[in-house]
Amino acid sequence: SNQLGSIYGHTSVMTGSLLDDHHWHSIIIERHGRNINLTLDRHMQHFRTNGEFDYLDLDYEITFGGMPFSGKPSSNSRKNFKGCMESINYNGNNITDLAKRKKLEPSNVGNLSFSCVEPHTVPVFFNATSYLEVPGRPSQDLFSVSFLFRTWNPNGLLVFSNFADGLGNVEVDINEGKVSVHINVTQVKKNRIDISS
Fold first, then answer.
1. How far, CA to CA in Å, does 167 sit from each of 136, 142, 159, 163, 195?
2. pTM of the full structure
């Protein structure tokens, strides 16, 4: 935000969604006068700041990852970031490298560690023709599957398996944005069970 005398301008821009996916995301913020480029994972938004001034006077410090308790953020959220940042560059300086080598002077480093634990989950991306096939377990009376998923498509097959000896199949899919389970059994009178979320 810019402020001088009685003229006040505040600019707020949001971009991206579902960024808590354990992947690295790239953010670049560039300001030239009142023109701002905000790039998230190579998707750029261009906008102009409100107010009447082309210059930006930063205070005595800029913080990454949160604020000390003495800070006074303009937003309602006081939550500091939990996660990993790498390659923090500010006006051409690699801040993370300087902080690790204790070359930031003066600096206030609050309880940082310079390593990131990789997440235990390993995501897999499926396109229109890909699939993951694993061996079934014959002669088992228990079928248990669990997984997390995210998609922008309202329709798609999530899980499919034939029963042994041609007795039918089970499928789990997304149909018009709802999760559906279909159990087809060939040798009984009522041979189809459908469950939809």
1. 15, 16, 17, 5, 19
2. 0.56
DSSP 3-state of 139? coil
Q: Where in the chain are the domains?
A: 121-188
Model confidence pLDDT, tens digit, residues 17-49: 778 777 889 999 998 888 889 999 988 999 888
Which of 2, 121, 118, 122 is CA-nearest to residue 58?
Answer: 2
What does residue 135 show for φ and ψ, rounded to 5 degrees? -65, 140
State how far the Cα of 16 lies from the Cα of 38, in Å rounded to an integer.
11
The token pair that represents 28 in the structure block: 């670049």
Whether 185 and 168 have beta carbons less than 8 Å apart is answered as yes
User: Strands of 27-32's sheet, edge to edge?
Assistant: 27-32, 35-40, 43-48
Q: Are 169 and 160 in contact (CB under 8 A)?
A: yes
- Three-state DSSP class for residue 165: helix
How many angstroms separate the CA atoms of 109 and 63, rounded? 10
The tokens for 5 are: 């005398």
Euclidean distance between CA atoms 170 and 132, whole angstroms: 16
Nearest 5 degrees, angle CA 117-CA 108-CA 76?
A: 80
Residues 175, 177, 181, CA angle at the centre, nearest 5°? 45
Question: In whole angstroms, what is the distance from residue 137 CA to residue 139 CA?
Answer: 7
Contact 166, 186 (CB under 8 A): yes
